[in-house]
Amino acid sequence: MNIDLTGRTALVTGATGQLGRVMAKTLASCGADVVIHYLNNEAKALEIQAEIQALGRKAVIVQADITNLASVMEMKQQIFKQFDRLDIIVANAVSQYTWTSILEQAPEDYLDQFNSCVMQSVLLTKAFVPQMIENQYGRIIGINTECSLQNFPNQSAYVTGKRGMDGLYRILAKEIGENQITVNQVAPGWMISEKYRGDDPEPSSDYEKNVPLKRRGEDQDIANTVAFLASDLANFITGAFVPVCGGNVMAAI
Q1: CA distance 62 to 78
Q2: For the whole model, what pTM was predicted?
Q3: What are phi and psi of 38, to 5 degrees?
Q4: Cα separation, 121 vs 138, whole angstroms
Q5: 158 noted as active-site residue
Q6: Which one of 38, 97, 137, 158 is the catalytic residue?
Q7: How many other CB atoms sit within 10 Å of the CB of residue 225?
Q8: pLDDT digits (tens, 9 = 90+) for 73-119
Q9: CA separation for the pair 9, 85 (Å, rounded)
Q10: For burial by CB atoms within 10 Å, which of 27, 47, 212, 241 has the most?
């Protein structure tokens, strides 16, 4: 049994990021054509584009502010100049900020995370879901985080944004499910990615000791889960929140 995305077109937001770049290349390796979204890192976007094209898949790069409606709609126009349809959305982009306590966290950081986590998906929905409804097919995959279930000190702005995103995705799954569009979330743990594969990786023993599998996962583990949820193998899974963290957090029933 293989994951076959032949004939599908996927958009990965934040595709130049540590996890996004692996997701984009993995979807392409499964047969999908890929839209590589970036905000600032055009050089990395071009590098990923070349790698995907080397796999024999079509790849285009688009620059957009995914928290701005006009920018998202312009991105939509660029995509549909290159492709007849968009089948898969991976909402992976997220803004970065300095974590601190609620008393010290700047109010604008909460707004920033809300825009990055929640409004990104609202705007992507408004831009692309009408066409998915016409096609009676679609896959929407949001990248959440294990932090949503941890609620540790200093995570408040990030967790607030991601938990808001969780509510949006659960409602969206119910609103558009009849159109054969699935809506799911993948929640990574602290994964090993290019950033942590150097000669002096960041110490992680305190983290790993609490993980049932006693190790950190790889960026590829996230990409594999995204590819599965994007495929027809997962065509009866919607509204799911899937932690990919070695059991570090476990969604309650």
Answers
A1: 7
A2: 0.95
A3: -145, 160
A4: 14
A5: yes
A6: 158
A7: 21
A8: 999 999 999 999 999 999 999 999 999 999 999 999 999 999 999 99
A9: 7
A10: 27
